[in-house]
Structure formats: C-alpha cells, structure tokens
Amino acid sequence: MRFDTSTFPIVWLYAADNLPDDEISDFAKFERLLDRRESLVFITHHTFCSCDSSNANFTRRKIEWLRRRRPQLQSQVKALKQIEPDARKRRDAIGFARQFFTFWGYPLLMVGDEIDAVGLAMELLTGEVSHREGKRCFH
After folding, report:
1. C-alpha pair distances (Å), 46 with each of 12, 13, 50, 70, 77
2. What is the pTM of this model?
3. Residue 37 half-sphere exposure toward CB, CA atoms < 13 A
4. What pLDDT, in 10s, does the model give residues 45-59?
C-alpha cells in the first residue's frame, strides 16, 4: 500500500502495482501518521470490501497492532473513504462497513467520486458534517 501524505490531513491510499502488500512497512507508515497526533482521513479507490483471513500470521500481527493502537485510531482517524462509482456496489458494502468499523475502530464510508470524498473528508476534519439524505452512505 502506498500512502500519499502530500495533502495531509487527507491521506490517499494506493494499492502497490503488481507487488504483494508489505504489512511491516504499511504498519510503520501508519504508525508515523498516528505519531503526528493529528486527525486524518484516508481516501482510496482500492476496494476494502472483502476479508482475506487466509494468512493467519498476518491476521494475528494485525490484531496485536490494533490492540496497541486502537485508542489513537479511534481519536485520530475520522474515516476511510472508499470511492466506488457504482451505486449498487456502495449499497452492497454496508455489511462490510459495519465489520470494518468493529475491527478498525473508525468508519468506512462509501462515496461515488473524488469530489464527494474530499468534501466529506473536509467536513469530518472540521466537524461540520452535513447529512444529505441519499447523497452519502454513512455507516
């Protein structure tokens, strides 16, 4: 996973092209962001609406890392915005978004485009969230 922090506190996440995830490096990047002790929002086009628990060691490391960092995650990470243009796929992601929140401690919010993702990120960071019916999918 590549973390683009050039627009911090909005952090863009990109899947590494043709490379396997390097969870040690990803956790180190994540920790550096949390060590800033500032609120942030993740935005990505990457699909997180699936669970792969085939690697038990990775799952165990992730859970141990989460236990240590949960208070920071809950207070600093306002949300992960996943950009999904397909309205049906956004609706289908609701169940996973609940699991995501339970596991990570911050919400996964589905949006239709980058403009909506950045707009909602700014609202969350400033505390001025508007709940427009049908426009955004809050989980």
Report:
1. 10, 8, 11, 23, 18
2. 0.82
3. 0
4. 987 655 555 566 667
